Amino acid sequence: EDDRKLFVGGLSWETTVKDLKEFFGKFGEVVSCTLKTDLETRRSRGFAFVVFNRKDVINAVLETEEELKLHGHKIEPKRANPRTGSRKIFVGRVDPACGEEDIKEYFKQFGKVEKVDLPFDKIKDQRRAFVFVEFDSEEAVKKVLAKEKHVLNGQEADIKKALPTQGPGGRGSNRGGRGRGGWNQGWGNGGYGNGGYGNYYGNY
Prior knowledge:
By secondary structure, this protein is α+β, with helices and mostly antiparallel strands.
C-alpha cells in the first residue's frame, strides 16, 4: 500500500481522523487514515498518513492548484516514504530495572528473539530507558506491532519498528515543538528524526 499512502504534515492539534477522511475524500476513496499522537498526552503530533484505494489519487492531491487548508492550517502533503523490512524493534519507556532475560521472556511469545541491545548512558552511568529487540524474522515484528498494548515490568512500553540505519546507543535531539513544525522534527531523516529515532532518544 506504500504507493497509495500520503504523508500529511502541518496539521492542527484539533484535526481528527474524521476530518482528514472528509477532507481527502473529495480527491478519492480513503481506505484508512492514521493520525500520529503523543504516547503520554494522546495529543496529535501534527502529522498523519492517509491511504487511498488507488495510487493515482496521490497525484491528484499533489497536483491540485487549490491551497490545502484544514482548521486554518496550511497542510503539507507528500508521498510517504516506503518502509523497508526490518527484524528489529525499538522499545521505549522501559524501566532500567527490567533485565535482558525479562525482556526476552516477554517478546519470545511473538517469535525467536536473537538479540537484545541495552543502550547505556556513560554520562549518567546508567542504562537508558529504551532497548532494541531483534527477532529471527520480519513476521515476528509484525506480530508485535499488531498488538495494541505492551506492558513490561508494570509499565506500558512505546514500540516502533526500528529502521535498518539504526543502531543502539545513538543519541538524538530533544523533541521539537508540537503542532505545526512538530511533525517536521518527528519525521526527519530515516523516518523519525536523525538516525531513525532521534527524537525518541531525547526522551529516554
